[in-house]
Amino acid sequence: MQYFKGLLKSLVLIFLSATVAIQAQASQDEGKEFNPGDVIMHHIADSHGWHLWDYTDENGEKHAVSIPLPVILFHNGGLDMFMSSAFHHGEEPVTKGDVTYIMHHSDIYIANEAGGLDFDEEHHPTNAQPLDLSITKNVFMMLLSGVLLLVLFGGAARSYRKSTNGSPRGLASFLEPLVVFVRDDIAKPNIGDKYHRFMPYLLTIFFFIWINNLIGLIPFFPGGANVTGNIAFTLTLSVFTFIVTNVNGNKHYWRHIFATPGVPIAVLPIMALVEFIGIFTKPFALMVRLFANITAGHIIILSLVSLIFVFESVFISPISIGFGLFMNVLELLVAALQAYIFTLLSAMFIGGAVEEHH
Predict the structure, then answer these.
(1) Which residue spans traverse the membrane (predicted)?
(2) How far apart are CA 64 and CA 55, in angstroms?
(3) pLDDT digits (tens, 9 = 90+) for 250-293
């Protein structure tokens, strides 16, 4: 009960922080009608810094407090590096040499000869863009997650070396059941006797996805980055599974694709085409499943918070907070569940590629 109360208090704090974050975003557009869609998309999208809050100085001017991140742009064979605070939240351009950069909705463009942006009929910028290699929120979160993994498993390894009887202590006592779970319930049943070769990969994606999911539920620094809800992130992980699966595929795996046993010769070309397309649809399903489920959870929670500002009534707060806390608790389950599903399906695809003919 004591741990449950502590968890509930933490969730209340997180939810109230999300409310403050949305209120700060809404205050930027004071005098305009509150648009929950724009606010939600702003919070789930990647950016070049953490926006914390706004304040008004003695002269009545509004200022934003944020944590900037390094901007690294490659253009005309050279690198331009500066902090994102130089853009002043997109209000001012940045000139480096003979090139002027403009930030528009978290994207960076090269200014035209007049020092501005050109737009199409749908008000989308048509200016050229440099190659953006910046340390954005998502990149920073991935680096932080990698450091956490090294700290966690490095500490667990040291505890085993110090243990006299080989029993886990400290971090190892928490991580060992999870590692055993991935080994006995994911790798062994789906891959078989060759599971040892793929355990490092399966453990890495399981813990990497799980940690990023959990930190993404925290709406304030250093959390709040929607890493696993970024299609580029899930695409990269799916490509890794695709490569591991097909590089390790044996002759029986490839024969089943291009010469499926027991299929009539007249149907064989159609089956070969279907099986070949299946090589690519499997990782595609991995990519979309993780992206859609994590993004949907963030959108629902932010939508519940936005109800307070849509109705502009304090009486809607109990409903928003109640359902919001429920969704936060549910998202804790989803964070682990999506890591488990991605790892499980990866193991199934790998197992089907390395399975010997019976």
Answers:
(1) 139-157, 198-221, 227-245, 257-280, 286-311, 332-354
(2) 6
(3) 888 888 888 877 778 888 888 889 889 989 999 999 999 999 99
Alpha helices (runs of H) in the chain, residue ranges in sequence order? 2-28, 36-44, 137-162, 171-181, 188-191, 199-216, 231-247, 251-258, 268-311, 317-354
User: Rounded to an integer, what is the distance from CA 205 to the centroid of its chain?
Assistant: 12
CA distance 228 to 213: 6
Burial class (CB in 10 A: 0-12, 13-18, 19+), 126: exposed
pTM summary value:
0.84
Residues 155 and 121 in one domain: no
DSSP letters, 50-80, are: EEEEEEE-TTS-EEEEEEE-EEEEEETTEEE
Other Cβ atoms less than 10 A from the Cβ of 29: the count is 12
For 24, phi and psi rounded to 5 degrees?
A: -65, -40
Rounded to the nearest 5 degrees, what angle is found at the Cα of 187, between the Cα atoms of 183 and 191? Answer: 150
Residue 285 is part of which domain span? 138-354
Q: Are 226 and 46 in contact, with CB atoms under 8 Å apart?
A: yes
Bridge partner residues of 327 (DSSP): none
Rounded CA-CA distance 26/39 in Å is 7
170: left (phi over 0), alpha (psi -120 to 50) or beta: left
Distance CA 331, CA 60 (A): 40
pLDDT tens digits for range 63-118: 777 888 999 999 888 889 999 888 887 788 888 888 899 998 888 999 988 888 88
* Packing angle of the helix pair 251-258, 317-354 (nearest 10 deg): 100
Structure tokens at 3: 């741990």
Tell me the C-alpha distance between 49 and 106, whole Å: 9
Asked if residue 198 belongs to a domain, the reply is yes
Measure the CA–CA gap between 169 and 271, rounded to whole angstroms.
53
151 and 121 inside one domain: no
Residues 87 and 148 in one domain: no
- Tell me, yes or no, whether 289 and 205 share the same domain: yes
Distance CA 53, CA 245 (A): 46
